[in-house]
Amino acid sequence: MYQVALCEDEQIFAETQEKICRSIFTKLNIEYRLTTFTGSEDFLSAFTRGDTRYDLILLDIIMAGMNGMELARTIREKDEAVAIIFITATMDYAAQGYDVDALHYLNKPLDGGKLERLIARDYTKRFQRDYFVFDSLGVKRKVAIREIICMETAGRRAEATLTDGTAVYYSGKLADLLNEMPAGRFTRCHQAFAVNLDNIRELDGGDAVAVNGKRIPVSRAYVKDVEKAFMERFRDN
Fold first, then answer.
1. HEC-encoded secondary structure of 55-124
2. Which end of the chain has fewer beta carbons closer than 10 Å to its terminal beta carbon, N or C?
3. Distance between CA atoms of 210 and 165, rounded to whole angstroms?
4. pTM, to two decimals
């Protein structure tokens, strides 16, 4: 369970940010619990009691009473592992973020796309395994996800092509297989294909070219989404 706290004392921003977060968790197929706090004192009281060990805290900086930066310093005294993302209307405190090892600063109004990439990366690092067990023609095979080039529909099952050119199989639909993969690593590029963004070397016309030279078709319906996902993954890495 991905435990997330949102601390924002302005109701209109809190409601908007909570809505964006829930949409991201649903899209990334993340099992989560999101708790919203209306101010630093409310959060600090719950945090001090130790009711929940949080994985991610989204903090406004400018709040009445203890501001977000002061609150982050208090958090770090007790928890060095939790990820902290500041969501703020000012970058005046940005330099101080190094003191609390902040994951990122995001400006208001919140950019959902940027937050999604940060959440996907943090969640994957914390929870997602780096392998998948395929039931390949009756033989179970453990495959490192980094070795998967692409996945495609093959009749009533899905086929994954690996970096060495071999194939393994999944006895279900491509969409179901995609849902079992780590968030942010794969993207649909065709009705019958999905690619591992980490193993795509370039986008060339109507194809995605993998690191081993394999060309995977990119249909016109997906080309903009693939280009966006490719650039975002490249930037994140």
1. CEEEECCCCCCCCHHHHHHHHHHHCCCCEEEEEECCCCCHHHHHHHCCCEEEECCCCHHHHHHHHHHHHH
2. C
3. 11
4. 0.60
The pLDDT of residue 235 is 67
pLDDT band at 153 (very low <50, low <70, confident <90, very high): very high
The closest alpha carbon to 43, from 24, 16, 10, 66, belongs to 66
Domains of the chain, start order: 2-127 (3.40.50.2300), 131-236 (2.40.50.1020)
Q: Average pLDDT in the 100-107 region?
A: 86
| CA dist 53 → 18, 32, 82 (Å) | 19, 13, 8
Residue linked to tokens 């994957």: 124
d(CA 58, CA 133): 34
Angle in degrees, CA 61, 184, 125, rounded to 5: 65
What does the angle CA 140 – CA 134 – CA 207 come to, to the nearest 5 degrees? 145
pLDDT averaged over every residue in the chain: 89
Q: Tell me phi and psi for residue 60, to 5 degrees.
A: -75, 150
- State whether the Cα torsion 218-117-51-81 is positive or negative: positive
In whole angstroms, give the CA distance from residue 124 to residue 2: 11
Q: How far is residue 61's CA from residue 98's CA, in Å, rounded to a whole number?
A: 15
pLDDT tier, 236 (very low <50, low <70, confident <90, very high otherwise): low
